[in-house]
Amino acid sequence: MSINGKAQVVGIYEYPDRKITNRTLAQLHAKAARGALADAGLTSSDVDGYITDSVAPGLGPMSMVEYLGLDVRYAETTDTGGSSYVNHVAHATQAIMAGKCDVVLVTFAGMPRSGLGGSPPTMGATPESSFELPYSPITPAQYALAARRHMHEFGTTSEQLAWIKVAASHHAQHNPNAMLRDVVTVEDVVNSRMVADPLHLLDCCVVSDGAGAIVVARPEIARSLKRPGVIVRGAGEAFSYNKGGHADITTTAAARSGPVAFAEAGVTQADVKYASIYDSFTITVLLQLEDLGFCAKGDGGKFVADGNLISGVGKLPFNTDGGGLCNNHPNNRGGATKVFEAVRQLRGEAHPAVQVPNCDIALVQGMGMSLSTRHNCGTLILEAI
Amino acid sequence: MAENDVFASPVRDPDTAPFFDALREAKLLIKTCNACNQPFFYPRTLCPFCLSESSWVECSGEGTLYSYTQVARRGGDYVLAMVTLSEGPTLMTNILTDTPEALAIGQRVRVEFVDTVGDEKLPVFVPG
Q1: Chain A closest CA to B26's CA: distance in Å?
Q2: Structural domain tally of chain B?
Q3: For A304-313, what is the mean pLDDT?
Q4: pLDDT at B3
Q5: Does residue A219 sit in the same domain as residue A344?
Q6: Which of B69, B73, B78, B90 to mutate to test the interface with A (most CBs of A within 10 A)?
């Protein structure tokens, strides 16, 4: 059993604003749903499956199914943080393959800049919280622990990490909705304010409000639509945590989600023309590129340097919308935007300045929660029609 | 930097009460599996390797610095770190030092017990 070819992404919608005022989360879910269904050429009465996250208002899908007026026979609310929406595409495909539904709508929204995002962690709410939260492990610091360790083990430098931001900024200059559109240099990054050493301010992603939606449909339905679909070829998921305190914080769960996705899709790293790589921080990209096998473990610094991730310049164009590092990181969760840009690339609808020629195979890599403590990785491989 | 730190209080529960009791006597406990004998941290009743019963073990309080980061904060920087105990498990902690620039991965550190804003003590580490 394989999900290869069993469903297609037929519609996407990305809410254009990066700071949203005077809107409710439910309103944003609805606007995103309408946008993605319009993109697909479908209506809400065509939807018989629904997936959202734990940030959506209400218990699981209960309130949103009603608010959106959906009549669904399949629904779920897997939440793995930022990678959720990458996994949702895989789960939607599985449900369609199993005959549980034909058209799955995925929606999300969050407004951390306006104080309407997810809830911060509470002491005692999770079994590990009392062994972490008293030490003030702010998110950049957790990623910094992994970056420092990677530098120690492999000799990675801040300048190499900076190239990841430089590449993202080269792409973001062409995105009118991006929060940071100025092209930056390696010097700009390493001279920016230190947040949690060795990570500087420009090693961090932006904080943005946002919303969006994805429509996944059975191939027979996809073929009846005017717009070209994008074929789901393979998917993998894995979790990483410090096993009872036995830590390896320089290896991500992508080392296990990636091979599963590649095998299911029947493609290799050399076939990937474009990659959306989760970029909460520069180190997030570097570790996942290694673990996905785009270079050897420890060689990520050399791989990302000298513009290798810049479309039209390097060997592996990544995050051509500017990514979380420059464009947006809606609700501190960048998984859906990774799907969006991969779909644009495969449809040939990315900005002409960053469109990858003959883009037939794209990889989408999501990461949820955090390096150094615990995270989920979801890998998705998509193919153009 | 240590004197400026104010630590939030952990919250004990039936899984972890002996750990916090021991902290009040300046002892650091971890758990070891009764079946597979693997030490583990954070403490929980059943072993995360095989879901067997486990026992408390007192640590030496010595370890090595696995990774660290100096975090910029209004009111004073602090060092978030991971320390590998000489008994095996690695835990999250803070390093209390006036010279964070002198820290290095692999260096020896030892436990100290500090007050929190609540009733519980907290294990932190210092160089040496």
Answers
A1: 16
A2: 1
A3: 98
A4: 43
A5: no
A6: B69
Name residue B56's amino acid: W
Judging contacts by C-beta atoms under 8 Å, the chain B residues touching residue A246 are 40, 88-90
Taking the mean position of all CA atoms in its chain, how far away is CA A208? 14
Instruction: Calculate the CA dihedral of residues B36, B41, B42, B43 and round it to 10 degrees.
Output: 50
Same domain, A190 and A213: no
Question: Dihedral sign, CA of A359, A363, A367, A373?
Answer: negative
Amino acid letter, A216: V
Q: Choose among B72, B89, B92: nearest Cβ to A135.
A: B92
- Nearest CA-CA distance, residue B70 and chain A, Å: 6
Report the alpha-carbon distance of residue A89 to residue A9 in Å, rounded.
8
Question: What is the radius of gyration, based on Cα positions, of chain A?
Answer: 19
Q: pLDDT tens digits, residue range A139-149?
A: 999 999 999 99
pLDDT for position A116 = 76
Domain with A36 in it: what CATH number? 3.40.47.10
Please name the residue of chain A whose CA is at the shortest distance from the CA of residue B85. Answer: A245
Q: CA-CA distance, A49 to A69, in Å (whole number)?
A: 12
Against a cut of 0.95, is the pTM above it? yes
Q: Which of B44, B67, B91 sits opposite A148 (nearest CB)?
A: B67
The verdict on A184 and A221 lying in the same domain is no
Does residue A216 share a domain with residue A160? no
Is A315 found in the same domain as A262? Answer: yes
ipTM above 0.95 for this complex = yes
Our count of domains for chain A comes to: 2
Q: Are B111 and B103 a contacting pair, CB within 8 Å?
A: no
Set of chain B residues whose Cβ sits within 8 Å of the Cβ of A245: 30, 39-42, 85, 88-91
Domain containing A108 equals: 8-117+209-231
CA–CA dist A39, A144 (Å, integer)? 39
pLDDT at B4: 55
